[in-house]
Amino acid sequence: MSNKSTDATRAERTAALMREQRRKERMRQLTIVGSIMAVLAILVGVGAFLMNRADKTSSSTVSASEYALGVGDENAPTKVVIYEDFICPACGYFESITTEKLKEAADAGKVYVEYRPFNFLSGVGPYSEKATNAFRAVWVQSGPEAAMKFHNALFVDQPSEEGPFPDDDWLVAKAVAAGADESKIRPAIEDMEYADWVAEATDDASEIRGTPTVYLDGKIVEAGNLDDKAKIIFDAIG
Predict the structure, then answer these.
(1) What is the pLDDT of residues 120-156, one digit of tens each?
(2) What's the pLDDT score for residue 36?
(3) How far apart, in whole angstroms, are the C-alpha atoms of residue 119 and residue 86?
(4) Which of 66, 87, 61, 52 is nearest to 203 (CA)?
(5) Do residue 43 and residue 160 come from a single domain?
């Protein structure tokens, strides 16, 4: 083989080696970039998870909910959200000192109030779940105004937390007095037609640690007692 042929062969081998090295370098760079992107994706995902978790566990904000019965103009300058349980005696007292004043303020366009009953005190007995189911039944079948009347009636005639608890006939009678059709509301109450909704509303309120829990313009109302909470709310409404 001539020197010229040998040189050509060496050149080809050298070029081939250089091409292979460049290919390997490109693969290495792509691998590094891919790894970096994967890490970034994981970090973004973890960040989103932590932010979402923080939102769910935060006690300083509250969002709109399909489990809330609203009273007043949603565009009112002040918003109050009340998480409550129909068998909770503290809720009963809080309702007794706030319901009428909140309604007057809502009618005047000063405040928008969301009532969010749920099955918080399930350990006490079945009444909480049954009353909340009945509340939803009246809401769906007879509208929000009837539901609000029923809601208020349950607190005005609230049974003792220690029992005995009212039966289905009592709930039906309250519902009918609020405007429900007995032929429709009775099976909904007796058969727990809206038990799934009650469970969903309770899950939606899973971060609530006590009732009543009250939010004022997105911030939880911290106060020594219920009268102080009410005062804070009405001072804010003006």
Answers:
(1) 999 999 999 999 999 999 999 999 999 999 999 999 9
(2) 47
(3) 8
(4) 66
(5) no
